[in-house]
Design goal:
Elements: H1 8-25, E1 33-36, H2 51-56, H3 65-74, H4 89-96, E2 104-111, E3 116-123, H5 127-136, H6 140-149, E4 154-156, E5 163-164, H7 171-180, E6 183-188, H8 193-204, H9 208-218, E7 233-237, E8 250-254, H10 258-261, H11 267-277, E9 280-283, H12 290-306, H13 312-317, H14 322-340, H15 342-355, H16 364-367, H17 373-388, H18 393-422, H19 424-427, H20 432-440, H21 449-452, H22 464-468, H23 472-493, H24 496-506, E10 515-519, H25 527-542, E11 546-551, E12 561-564, E13 568-570, E14 580-582, H26 585-594, E15 599-602, H27 607-619, E16 623-626, H28 631-638, H29 643-658, E17 662-665, H30 668-674, E18 686-688, H31 704-708, E19 716-720, H32 732-742, E20 747-751, H33 757-763, E21 768-770, H34 778-784, E22 787-790, H35 799-806, E23 811-814, H36 817-822, E24 829-832, H37 835-847, H38 849-863, H39 868-878
Parallel strand pairs: 6-7, 10-11, 10-15, 11-12, 15-16, 16-17, 17-18, 19-20, 19-22, 20-21, 22-23, 23-24
Antiparallel strand pairs: 1-8, 2-3, 3-4, 3-5, 8-9, 13-14
């Protein structure tokens, strides 16, 4: 997928928007049109609607009235207004200076019937009427009745973005608003084209018969609130709080005989007349959340430059939930830290000024360090683009922000990698006990004195300040960019379930149904990668609406596979064979948006797991987690964690998995554990699934001698898998040698590699070893063996067990987790509890050639229960994609 290409859905939206605005514009003579932005803000929007802003005591913008008017003129507006929240101070101030400006404000109104807040734009009122409007805005019906009686035109701003208290608005809410409003903001510059076009489709489909029907249904007389109850008009406005987007979205107002009227009537009054008549043609361009992301980024820069401590008492005693107050406390401290860092605050100041077209001084370039030169150049480019960009300014700015983020990440992770290479605690991370010690440090003291008294401090904690030394600027700057992306998407799509329902009701612009599957491992040689390749094969074969996204420097993107390159790649001494890859998170954010995905799946608990939760919360989409590994057992059996650290890992996993809408498990033991009192997951949140094998896994007619060089008459035991302690491979020497006492001819083949390879070969040098066998050659190996010995007590599923059965090879394994669900004891293999039982069963098996034949035949039959069609159908149903199988 080309991340810069529009999907068919986005193409439809863009085409329809362009066609609609162009068609409307052609109806009116150009010389009779006024261009105005009917929705923009300046520094007098000092009381934010968002609770977080009020707790922090910050205005919605610091941009001056003069600057906004300059931007409106620069972007081609011929008439002017400013719509600050609940006041028209800016308009009055300009009128006092004899400036021709239309009086206006954006009022925060309340719909008492539904307990929902909405924004209403009002125009042409007096200062006395403003006082009355502010008193009436607590009830939108009283507000609208007053405006109708006093001939004050109103527009319902961004109708599909509202302020509901914890619930989605019912259909009745929109029906009632349709009766009390004449004008609707169809093009809002801070909303995406999807929401804007849904408004257009909704309003243009309203008929007089519909109005009469709704009036009778709800007992509402629309003539109390509207001068023309049947006419519904559409407007546009930038909703800009930053200044530089003011006038890029707005409204053409039609004034018959405009040039003649201008000789006797001010533009502000002519604009008011057109708004009252509803002679409005919205204008603007297609976009998603890019414009809002840029605006939020600049807003955060403004806060950082102007922030003042609101005081602890304000934070604690302000109305709001505790989570909001905690978030405010975190944000307050973050801004305070940023202000203390001179390099960061200097960059933020330069960045903000460049977005307004003000480049830094010529000498600044020569004092910037080499590492930050590309960042500085990109920021300066933004100031040039402001004045001479060939493409829309949004595209140019957003491209620069992505480039800046890319350079910041490169600097951050290059420096972090060097620090980690020198860090003692990383160098010491060579054994399980070292990892346990690190996990033990993941704690914060609960005593306040621990943060004020050095003697009482958490002596066991990792020195974060030492680690972040030299990383502060790239860390804060990168975090700032990512936070702006997150908040922009969150603001736009926090009502996604409602938008989906709304589009379904309209039968138009339904969002595509597509899932993005994230994974940290795909190219690595492990069981998780094998199962993901099998899933990708089925996705491609069936053309399912699912794409996988992986981070790799060796793969290239293909059909249904998106590959992002790592910013940095490293491994830790304890697991040197497993690479850790860190992707550009903003790049993944953009792939999700541009691919029109509406759900996310993840298979790994690493960076991609965190990114899946980021996407879930940013885009308000369902997220599903596919559990491949039992980490609690891994920590207990392999890493030998004590009970305290096991509990810590369990709590971390409970929090992590609990953040997903559903989790998928591969065995009934794990399903029971997650729904037990210990983890306390609802039963409908934990779904049982399974793997399947590649169709090439079937019985092959080969001979042992030809394939392996082992005599055909010798009984052959086989082990296939990762050679590591958690796989129980160190049980193999005792098992093999004890069985060989009774069956001297028996042979053992070990296929695989891993961290315990050298140790196993030293303990069991007399058997044959094969390194990692190519996937397509494994069926022949399975087919010539007599039994698969699987001594692992760790595997959640054990793909090799199912592969063996498909090739007619019985399996003996411990009665735990995955193998216990797959193997039918004494029919297609054996389930045992101890090593001694395993040895006894193997001896009995090799004693009875007829039994060996029966189990081999039964193995093939059992494998048929794990058919891909059945497993995939259940999985797709659980993630609400069953209509696409």
């Amino acid at each position: 997928m080309n991340k810069n290409a529009l999907t068919s859905f986005q193409t439809e939206l863009k085409t329809d928007l362009d066609s609609y605005t162009k068609e409307l514009l052609q109806k009116y003579p150009a010389e009779d049109l006024i261009k105005i932005d009917l929705h923009c803000h300046d520094c007098n929007s000092n009381e934010p609607d968002e609770l977080l802003g009020r707790i922090l005591n910050v205005p919605e913008t610091w941009i001056s009235t003069k600057r906004v008017l300059e931007e409106l003129k620069k972007n081609g507006c011929t008439a002017y207004t400013i719509t600050n929240h609940n006041n028209a101070r800016s308009c009055y101030e300009q009128q006092a200076q004899n400036k021709d400006i239309l009086t206006a404000a954006e009022f925060s109104c309340w719909v008492p019937d539904d307990n929902i807040g909405i924004h209403v734009l009002a125009y042409g009122f007096t200062q006395e009427q403003e006082i009355k409007l502010n008193k009436l805005r607590k009830n939108v019906f009283h507000f609208q009745q007053f405006t109708c009686e006093n001939d004050i035109p109103t527009i319902w701003a961004h109708p599909l973005y509202h302020y509901a208290t914890g619930t989605m608005p019912p259909a009745e809410f929109f029906d009632k608003m349709l009766l009390i409003f004449e004008r609707f903001e169809m093009l809002n510059g801070q909303r995406d084209t999807w929401q804007n076009m849904l408004v257009k489709e909704w309003i243009t489909s309203v008929t007089p018969a519909k109005i009469d029907q709704l009036s009778q249904k709800y007992g509402i007389d629309p003539s109390i609130y509207c001068r023309d109850i049947y006419k519904k008009s559409l407007s546009g406005g930038s909703d800009s709080h930053t200044g530089f987007f003011s006038g890029l979205t707005g409204t053409h107002l039609y004034i018959p005989d405009l040039q003649k009227r201008l000789k006797t009537t001010p533009l502000s009054l002519l604009s008011l007349e057109a708004v009252k008549r509803g002679d409005m043609i919205p204008f603007g361009s297609h976009h998603n959340s890019e414009k809002l992301t840029i605006a939020l980024l600049d807003y955060v820069c403004q806060i950082a430059l102007n922030y003042k401590d609101p005081g602890l008492m304000r934070l604690l005693l302000h109305k709001g939930k505790m989570t909001q107050k905690v978030l405010a406390m975190v944000a307050s401290n973050a801004f305070a830290e940023v202000q203390l860092h001179k390099v960061t605050i200097s960059f933020i100041n330069i960045f903000h000024n460049c977005m307004l077209g003000k480049p830094p001084s010529f000498l600044k370039k020569y004092i910037v360090s080499t590492a930050y030169k590309p960042i500085f150049d990109e920021v300066v480019k933004m100031s040039r683009d402001y004045h001479q960009a060939k493409n829309p300014i949004v595209e140019e700015y957003y491209h620069s922000i992505c480039q800046i983020n890319k350079h910041l990440n490169e600097v951050l992770f290059a420096r972090l990698q060097k620090k980690l290479a020198k860090a003692k605690w990383v160098k010491q991370l060579k054994a399980a006990s070292d990892l346990e010690r690190i996990v033990g440090k993941l704690e914060l003291p609960s005593r306040i004195r621990a943060y004020t008294d050095k003697k009482e401090g958490n002596k066991n904690s990792i020195n974060i300040s030492e680690l972040l030394d030299g990383l502060t600027f790239p860390f804060f700057a990168s975090l700032l960019v990512l936070s702006a992306h997150f908040t922009g998407a969150r603001v736009l799509y926090n009502t996604r379930p409602f938008l989906k329902q709304f589009s379904d009701t309209l039968g138009k612009y339904q969002h595509p149904v597509r899932a993005l599957w994230l994974t940290d491992t795909f190219v690595d040689k492990n069981g998780v990668s094998v199962s993901l390749h099998a899933m990708l094969h089925e996705i491609r074969t069936r053309n399912l609406p699912i794409d996988m996204l992986v981070c790799s420097d060796t793969l290239e993107s293909e059909d249904h596979l998106i590959v992002v390159k790592p910013i940095v790649q490293f491994s830790i001494p304890l697991y040197a064979e497993q690479a850790m890859r860190i992707p550009n998170l903003v790049e993944i954010h953009n792939y999700f948006q541009q691919g029109d995905y509406d759900r996310v799946i993840c298979s790994t608990e690493g960076v991609m797991g965190l990114m899946a939760l980021y996407l879930k919360n940013a885009y308000s989409v369902p997220a599903y987690f596919y559990i491949h590994t039992d980490w609690v057992m891994f920590c207990r059996k392999v890493l030998n964690f004590d009970r305290t650290n096991q509990s810590r890992i369990r709590r971390i996993l409970r929090t992590f998995y609990g953040a997903f809408d559903k989790v998928f498990v591969l065995n009934t033991d794990q399903q029971k554990w997650l729904t037990s009192r210990e983890m306390n997951f609802p039963e409908d949140k934990v779904c049982l699934t399974a793997h399947w094998t590649d169709p090439l896994f079937m019985l092959k007619k080969e001979t042992r001698m030809k394939i392996l060089g082992i005599e055909n008459h010798r009984p052959l035991m086989l082990y296939v898998g990762r050679i590591s302690k958690e796989k129980g491979v160190l049980d193999l020497p005792d098992i093999y040698r004890t069985v060989r006492k009774q069956h001297p001819e028996v042979a053992l083949l070990v296929v695989g590699r891993g961290p315990a390879s050298a140790e196993l070969k030293a303990a069991l040098p007399e058997v044959q070893y094969l390194d990692w066998v190519e996937h397509e050659k494994l069926p022949a190996v399975y087919s010539v063996a007599d039994i698969l010995v699987f001594p692992s007590k760790f595997d959640t599923f054990a793909c090799v067990v199912l592969e063996s059965l498909c090739c007619g090879l019985p399996v003996i394994a411990y009665s735990t987790k995955g193998p216990k669900d797959i193997i039918v004891d004494d029919m297609c293999g054996y389930l045992v509890k101890t090593k001694e039982q395993m040895i006894n069963k193997l001896n009995a098996y090799f004693d009875d050639p007829e039994l060996m034949k029966q189990l081999k035949k039964a193995a093939e039959e059992r494998a048929k229960d794990y058919h891909v069609d059945k497993i995939l159908a259940t999985f797709l149903k659980d993630i609400d994609l069953d209509n696409y199988l």
